[in-house]
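Lecture notes, unit on protein representations.

Consider one protein chain, 306 amino acids long.
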Amino acid sequence: MKSNPFAHRPPREWLKITVCVPQHHADLTAGFLMDLTGSGIEQQTEPITPMPDSETIIAYLEKNAHCQSKKTEFEAFLAKLADENTDFAPPSCSYTEIIEEDWNNNWKAFYKPLRLTDSITVKPTWEPYNAESHEIVIEIDPGMAFGTGLHDSTQLALQLIERSFVGRSTPQKILDVGTGTGILGMACALLGAKNVLAIDNDPDAIAAARENVEHNNLSHVMTVEPTDLNKIEGPFDLIAANITQDVLTSMASQLISLLAKQGHLVLAGILKGEQADTITRLFYGKGLTLLESPWQKEWQAFLFKK
């Protein structure tokens, strides 16, 4: 594995946004930040600030030409939230500038092996681990990509993928959309799939996923490509997509058209409540059967069948 995650580009700078809001506004704020930043967020039910009945939300905004306008847009959102809810304490917000290289190195101290499903354990490449005989161990070096397995949406997706391989004929042809570090696709390969295609439009993800696939000795089963979804040819026995609700909504018809008859679709990256309701109505309305829809904290995932 490469020790330098920036071999393919220079490090970026980010603005870390930490906001504390009343609990009943947490999902709305989280959804706004996900749309604003175009990336995942972190919600903490134990707030950093001592505001009662509140949640802390953390997001990262890239410092580029659009950073200031997006920051202004978010502050206008918070001001409107405060004006419309005068019975509650106003949201508190702070910003921290982060150099990507330091961020990447510092968080590694907190990334430890983690059992995510009945059989799947994810571990960082630099941590020793003694696996049990029935365990499937995926070794990950995230680089600068999303998908360590620590996020609730990733854990939910892995649990549903594992269930898709139990008690049914083993899915052979898999599509992992928005692969990040490649974790979902690699899980499918280790569970017995023979052909896994992982796609992403982020160069960081492509670089990290390709290295992880090679490190886990899965190059003969799994390929990682920066291919657009509309250029993919199906059908696939299983499609997994851990992205965001708005992106999943926009690609719903494409995902369904690529799914084989009786095939399974795993969707994650969706907040409980309005986002989850939208996904349920949309995919059910397009003829899919909902098999399972587990949730973990504020996140929900879906297992559909065609």
